[in-house]
Design brief:
globular; disordered N terminus; 13-stranded antiparallel β-sheet
C-alpha cells in the first residue's frame, strides 16, 4: 500500500514536491508486527538492564528522603503481549528530509515486583501509546542515499500503570507518582524532542552524530498568560465561601514553565511572572496546560487541564494573537484561560541596530549553544568518576543565577567520529598551547601519525598554525585553567569521554548582562560533584563563536564550541 500511494503522490506531485507536501499512509503493518513478536523476548533482558541502570536510580532520586534507598525490583516480566505498530505515514519535509511517523501501542500484562521498605508492591499491567518519528536526513547521492537517521517522539507518549499491593492506598501515592514520573522522565530525556537517537550513516560527510542528535530549533514561541475565568474552587474558608489560589503549568516537549500564583480568586488576572519563551523543534509539537491550586499546608490541588493542543491552536504570527483555552476536569468543563502568543525566528547575525522592541519585551533575547564533543586527558585514576555530566551557569551581579543542569552524560569513546576540519582545529589549538604530537595524541585519542598529518595539513593551508579562538576564551582570572604541557603524561591518561551533544539555553540580553555576565560550563562527576570548569564572558560569545578545546582541569580538555543566536521578528514583519 505504501508503494502504491507514494507512486501516485510522485506522479501527481508537481509543484507540491518543492513545498514538501508528499505524503503516504499505510494502516496494514502485519509484517512489522510479526517481526516485533519474534524480537519481543529479546527485549526483556535489555529492559531489565534499563530498569536497573536508569529507571530505579531515577525513582530513588524522586522519592522523599524517608524512602530513599528502600525501593528495589525483585522480578520483571514483559508478559506475552507485544506492541502493536501502526498506522504508518511517510512525508517529505521542506528541507528534503524524509519523515516516517509510526504509531506505537502497548497493552502489556506486565509483571513487576517491587519492594519498598520491606512491603511488596507490584505493577500488573501497563499501557503505552505514542507516535514515534524516524527522520532520514540529509539527502545523499549514493547509497544509502541519506546521511543519517534520527528516532524520536515529537510529543511525550502516554503511560498508565495498574499497581497491586499497597500502591493504591493514599499513603503510597507518593511511590506510584515517583515511579510514573521516573519512567516518563527517562523516556523524555532520551527520546522526546529535542532529545533523540541519532545514527550517522555516511562517515565521510559533514553531518556527525552530534548534529543528528541535537538539531537546531525552528524558532521560539512567546506565551503571555493573561487571565482565567470560572476556575474550580479548591479552598474553603470559615465563612463557607470557596475559592482557589491558581497557578498555571505549561509543557511543550521537554520545555516546562510555571506561572506565579494569584491568591484567593476563581477569575485570576496575571500581571507579573506570566511570560515565557519556548524553544520549538518541530511544528507538530503539542502544548499541554494544567492549572493547580497553591496550598501551603498540603500538596497542591489539581484544578483542570487542556492537553495535547497543537501549535496551530495558538497564534504563530509576527504579532500577538489572543487565544481562549478551555479547561476540563474529569471530562467536565472547569473554566478557561486567556493567553497571547507570537512567533520569533532565530538568526546568527547580531542585531546591528539593537534588539527590536518586540523581542526586548520578554524574558529572552539570546540563545546560547554549547556544543560539547568530548572530555580528553582524564587521568586513568579518575575513571571511577565517570560518567560525567554538564551544568551551565550564567552569573551576573544583581541577577539571579541562570542554571541549566544537563542530564546527558559523557561515555568512554568507542570509535566516535570527529569531522576532519574539526579535528584539524583541535590539533591546531593544542599545538598553539605548546603540546607536542605525542601529548595531543594522548589527549584526543587520535594516532600520533594522524595528529602530525593534521598539523602538516594546517601549516600547508595557512602557512602557519593559526588558532580559531582567542586566549580570552578561558577565564584570564584563573591561571590554573591555562593549558600546561606538564599537566599531561601520555601513559597516565584514559580514553576520551564522549558527550556528542549540544546544550541550549535562552537568556536575557540586558545592559547588565552585556557588561558583567559570565558563562561557566561545569563538568560534574557521577556523584554530581564538580570535576572541573571553564569560564568565558557572555559578551565574547555573543560577539563571535568560541571554539575549544577548553581546559577544565589541569591537563584535562573539553572539546567543543560556544555560539550565540538572536531572537528576531519573522522576516515578513520587519
Amino acid at each position: 500500500p505504501v508503494e502504491r500511494l507514494v507512486s501516485k503522490n510522485l506522479a501527481d506531485a508537481g509543484s507540491a514536491q518543492a513545498a514538501g507536501a508528499l505524503h503516504a499512509q499505510d494502516k496494514d503493518l502485519g509484517w512489522l508486527n510479526l517481526l516485533i513478536t519474534i524480537l519481543w523476548p529479546r527485549v526483556e533482558d535489555f529492559l531489565r538492564t534499563m530498569v536497573d541502570d536508569k529507571i530505579m536510580p531515577a525513582v530513588d532520586e524522586a522519592l522523599p528522603s524517608a524512602l530513599t534507598g528502600s525501593v528495589t525490583v525483585e522480578r520483571l516480566s514483559l508478559g506475552k503481549s507485544t506492541p502493536k505498530l501502526g498506522p504508518l505515514s511517510v512525508r517529505l519535509r521542506e528541507d528534503e528530509a524524509i519523515m516516517i511517523d509510526l504509531g506505537v501501542a502497548i497493552q502489556s500484562d506486565l509483571d513487576v515486583g517491587i519492594r519498598a521498605m520491606r512491603i511488596p508492591v507490584g505493577i500488573k499491567a501497563f499501557s503505552f501509546s505514542g507516535i514515534i518519528t524516524v527522520c532520514l536526513r540529509p539527502p545523499a547521492m549514493k547509497p544509502p542515499f541519506v546521511g543519517g537517521l534520527e528516532v524520536y517522539f515529537i510529543n511525550p507518549p502516554q503511560l498508565d500503570m495498574d499497581f497491586t499491593g499497597l500502591a493504591h492506598v493514599a499513603d503510597w501515592k507518593v511511590l506510584k507518582d515517583a515511579i510514573h514520573a521516573a519512567i516518563m522522565k527517562g523516556i523524555s530525556g532520551a527520546m522526546v524532542v529535542p532529545a533523540r537517537i541519532g545514527v550517522d550513516l555516511v562517515p565521510d560527510d559533514d553531518v556527525t552524530d552530534t548534529d543528528l542528535k541535537s538539531p537546531e530549533p525552528v524558532g521560539v514561541l512567546r506565551l503571555v498568560l493573561l487571565s482565567g475565568k470560572d476556575l474550580r474552587a479548591a479552598d474553603s474558608g470559615f465563612t463557607g465561601n470557596t475559592s482557589s489560589d491558581p497557578y498555571v503549568v505549561v509543557d511543550i516537549g521537554q520545555e516546562h514553565w510555571q506561572s506565579k500564583v494569584v491568591n484567593d480568586t476563581l477569575n485570576p488576572i496575571w500581571s507579573s511572572g506570566n511570560v515565557a519563551d519556548f524553544l520549538i523543534y518541530d511544528l507538530e509539537q503539542f502544548v499541554s496546560i494544567k492549572v493547580y491550586d497553591d496550598d501551603r499546608m498540603s500538596s497542591d490541588d489539581f484544578l483542570g487541564e487542556a492537553l495535547r493542543l497543537p501549535l496551530s491552536h495558538f497564534g504563530m504570527g509576527s504579532s500577538f494573537q489572543e487565544t481562549t483555552v478551555n479547561i476540563s476536569y474529569k471530562s467536565r468543563a472547569a473554566g478557561s484561560l486567556s493567553v497571547c502568543t507570537r512567533w520569533f525566528e532565530l538568526g546568527s547575525t547580531a542585531p546591528v541596530k539593537g534588539i527590536s522592541k518586540a523581542v526586548a519585551q520578554g524574558p529572552s533575547q539570546l540563545l546560547i549553544s554549547a556544543r560539547l564533543e568530548g572530555l580528553h586527558g582524564v587521568p586513568a585514576t579518575d575513571n571511577d568518576s565517570a560518567p560525567y555530566h554538564v551544568r551551565t551557569r550564567v552569573t551576573c551581579p544583581g541577577v539571579k543565577d541562570i542554571v541549566s543542569d544537563w542530564r546527558t552524560s559523557a561515555k568512554p569513546a568507542q570509535g566516535a567520529r570527529v569531522g576532519a576540519d574539526h579535528l584539524r582545529t583541535v590539533c591546531q589549538n593544542l599545538a598553539l598551547r605548546k603540546f607536542g604530537p605525542a601529548e595531543i595524541s594522548a589527549i584526543t585519542g587520535v594516532p600520533q601519525v594522524e595528529v602530525q598529518a593534521n598539523l602538516a595539513a594546517a601549516e600547508s593551508a595557512d602557512g602557519e598554525v593559526k588558532s580559531s579562538v582567542s586566549a580570552e576564551a578561558i577565564s584570564p582570572s584563573s591561571p590554573s585553567k591555562r593549558a600546561s604541557p606538564s599537566g599531561v603524561t601520555t601513559p597516565k591518561v584514559s580514553a576520551a569521554h564522549r558527550f556528542s551533544a549540544i546544550f541550549r539555553t535562552l537568556l536575557p540580553w540586558t545592559a547588565e548582562m552585556m557588561q558583567s555576565a559570565v558563562l561557566t560550563v561545569e563538568v560534574l562527576d557521577r556523584n554530581r560533584h564538580e570535576f572541573g570548569s571553564f569560564e568565558v564572558r557572555l559578551a565574547e560569545v555573543a560577539a563571535r563563536d568560541k571554539r575549544g578545546p577548553f581546559e577544565v582541569a589541569p591537563g584535562v580538555l573539553l572539546d567543543g564550541a560556544l555560539r550565540a543566536k538572536w531572537m528576531r521578528e519573522p522576516r515578513a514583519s520587519r
